Amino acid sequence: MASQVGKYQMVEGQYWSGMTTKQHLASVYNFSPQKASSLMTKLLASNYGGTLESMLSKFPTKYFDTDDDFTWDLIGAYERNFPLVEAVWKGSVVTDSTDGVGKGGSFKLYFSERAFSDVNIIVGERNELYQIRILEEPVLVAGGLWEYEVELMGGNQFGMPGSELVGGKRFSKEFSLVEDTLSIKGGDIWFSSPIALRNEFSSIRMQHTAPGNMKDRRIGTMLAVKDPKTGAIVQQPLWMQHVEWKFEYDYAQEKNKVLMFARSNRDENGDYSNIGKSGHVLKQGAGIREQMESSNTFYYTNFSLKFLEDMLTELSEGKLSMDERHFILKTGERGAIQFHKAISADGSGWMKDAVALGFDNTNINAIQKVVSPLHPNALSVGYQFTQFIAPNNIKVSVEVDPFYDSKVRNKILHPNGGVAESYRYDIMDIGTIEGEPNIQKAMVTGNEEVRGWEAGLRNPFTGAPNTDLMANSVDGSTYHRACFGIGAIVRDPSRTASLIPSILAA
């Protein structure tokens, strides 16, 4: 049963798909000589403002020559830790109970990678207390491990506890120490091979058929749509005007959903099990959401500024300069309200401190005089926090995306009201990596947009009085649109993050 707008709604909305005939117009739109308004409210049709595709259009689209899988390389970090596999002291594997490792002699460390070189000084977790010198270049031994002969730097007379040398302890390079007289060699540098990432294109297609006698069909109630260029409300007295607008609207929404929500249907063996109507496989690439899931996904029950601050600090420290720490939180309307309430609650102490220190907060115009028949001295009051500046110049701003509030696509409700998705926060760091956007739309050259009419006897889409060349003898035409190859690239998922209500955890 369709939902009602209110008790003054006279009839329920009716829904249908496929071909629309003049009988539909007569029964649904109720031709009537007089109406209270010339505009008809469109139920369950939200004219989304800024969409994902419009946001990505600010950056150049990445074009590929073919619709084959597309790949990109992600260079590893210039500095990193290397986990120790094991240590051996006096012929025995070091354990937590081993004591005095390295006292008076060398010992061996085993890593799964050729992490360091001769003369490097390396450190573990207690990086200033226990410094280890590599004596020779590593040797590849059984099991694919790299064996290092090492010694403790002088000054340590008691050796090193085994608890600092068990498997899993992480080590990093400090510097390459040499003698100041006739030194023979220095420490070498190490490289990181790029991580190869891959995605594939999705292809979408839509079509709609209209009878030839709908070409100039007027409707009793004019439809209102927003002009995409001027933003002005435009009345459409002809049915086919609305058909074309609605087609373009739905097509744009499908493209946005493919870019954001598509999930790869390729299995672990690289095969596809979905077959289309033509008998060929259906390929669906990974959207932005799925690519983001590989890094920095957090679930929360109680939202707080501290939780948000900790997450943003994790994304920033040691990675971003102080002037690059501005994050955009894409969320729903409920999430924006929750963000405001968290600042009001967690920041109330700071606001009191600011007043106590003499800062003047009265110029925000939160209280303003208004005109009302209820009182000669009527006032309005209100404000909303949409941005928060945390320590270390971390700045976070909230941006509401209508996709998060859709009650059609998002079915799980939140106990605090609204849909659970409205409380989700996504940080999609667009940024640049070596001159290219971190998040980018990908398309196939020449296949970006395919459109056309399958013309019958009369074509209501073009308004032509007759059709010289017909594809069939039907008195009507079919409008086709397709995009054979659309996808998204998230070059470095570690520069993105998601804060998701725990009710949405799988």
Give your account of this protein's structure:
- Helices cover 15% and strands 29% of the residues.
- It has 506 residues and is α+β, with helices and mostly antiparallel strands.
- A six-stranded antiparallel β-barrel has the order 3-5-9-7-6-10. It has a six-stranded mixed sheet with strand order 15-27-21-16-20-19.
- The chain is elongated, with a radius of gyration of 32 Å.
- The two termini are 30 Å apart.
Q: What proportion of the residues form beta strands (DSSP E)?
A: 25-35%
Helix content: 10-25%
Domain module tally? 2
**Which regions are unreliable across 5 or more consecutive residues at pLDDT < 50?**
31-49
User: Count of helical segments?
Assistant: 7
Tally the beta strands: 27
Mean pLDDT reading: 78
Shape: elongated
SS-based class: alpha+beta
Radius of gyration: 32 Å
Report how far the terminal alpha carbons are from each other. Answer: 30 Å
| Spatial strand order of the main sheet | 3-5-9-7-6-10
The major beta sheet can be summarized as: 6 strands, antiparallel, barrel
Short synopsis of the structure:
The chain is built from 7 helices and 27 strands.
For the structure shown, list the relevant keywords.
506 residues; alpha+beta; 2 domains; six-stranded antiparallel barrel; six-stranded mixed beta sheet; 7 helices; 27 strands; elongated
